[in-house]
Amino acid sequence: MANGQAPHALDEADVRRRRARSLDRLVLGCGTSPTPECVNFDINAGPGVDIVGDLTHTPWVWETGEPIADGHFAHIDASHVLEHVPHDVFKTDEDGYVKRLTDLDGLTVVMNEAWRVLVEGGSFLITVPCFNGGEPERCFGDPTHRRYMCRRSFRHYSRNPDEDINMWKEWTGYDERLAGCFVSDPSSGVKTESNGDLVMLLWKPHA
C-alpha cells in the first residue's frame, strides 16, 4: 500500500467492463438473452449487456465512450437483428435537430463497421428470416422488420472464395464506400433452415 492507503476496490461494473475487453467474440442485438463469454451489444440496457448503442451509429464504442479498436474481435454473431436495421440513418444532435448521418444504407453502415472490428481471418455469423424460405410469414409478419432479405441480399457484401474480385465488383455495381468484401463458401457457409431462416457464415480475408 502506497502512503498507507488501501488499494482501490473495483466495483462490479468495473470488473465486467474489464472482462468484456478481454473477450474476442461479439454478439449483436443480444436482447434479453446475452451470451456468456461474449461481448453483448444491444440497443437497450439490461443484465449482461456490455455495450448499449445503435448499430448504425459508428464507430461502435465501449461503455466508456472509447471506440472499439480495429480488428478487436475474432467472431461476430448477428442473429435476427440485421432485418431490423433501418435503411436511413439519422441522429439527433445536441441542439435537438435530427440529421441524416450518411447517404449509405443502414445495412452497409453495419457491415462496414463489422469489417472494421473483425480481425483478418475473423468470422461473421448472420441469421435472418428469408422471405423466400419455408415460412415467409416470419419475414413479413413482424412490423419491426425494416427490410426483407434473401441469399442475394448479402452478395453485395461477400463473394465466393474462387470468385474473381473484379468480376464480383462488376456484377454488384461495387460501391467504393464499402470497407471490404467478405468471403462466403456457399457449400458450407450458407444454408436455409426448415423454418425459413437464412444462415450465412462470412469471413474477413487476409490482406
Secondary-structure class: alpha/beta
Biggest sheet character: 9 strands, mixed
Q: How many helix segments?
A: 4
The percent of residues in helical segments reads 10-25%
Q: For the terminal residues, how far apart are their CA atoms?
A: 48 Å
Report the uncertain regions.
none
**Averaged pLDDT, please?**
85
Strand content: 25-35%
**What sequence of helices (H) and strands (E) makes up the elements?**
HEEEEEEHEHEHEEE
Radius of gyration: 19 Å
Globally, the shape reads: globular
Query: What's the β-strand tally?
Result: 11
List its traits.
single chain, 207 residues, two-stranded antiparallel sheet, nine-stranded mixed sheet, 4 helices, globular, 11 strands, alpha/beta
Summarize the structure.
With about 210 residues, the chain is of the alpha/beta class.
Overall description:
- The structure is a single chain.
- Strand 5 (89-92) and strand 6 form a beta hairpin.
- Strands 1, 2, 3, 4, 7, 8, 9, 10 and 11 form a 9-stranded mixed β-sheet that branches. This protein has a two-stranded antiparallel sheet with strand order 5-6.
- It is built from 4 helices and 11 strands; from the N terminus they run αββββββαβαβαβββ.
- The mean pLDDT is 85.
- It has helices at residues 12-21, 106-117, 137-140, 165-172; strands spanning 25-28, 39-42, 51-52, 73-79, 89-92, 98-102, 118-129, 158-159, 182-184, 190-192, 197-203.
- The protein has a domain at 70-180.
- By secondary structure, the chain is an alpha/beta fold.
- The chain is globular.
- It is 16% helix and 26% strand.
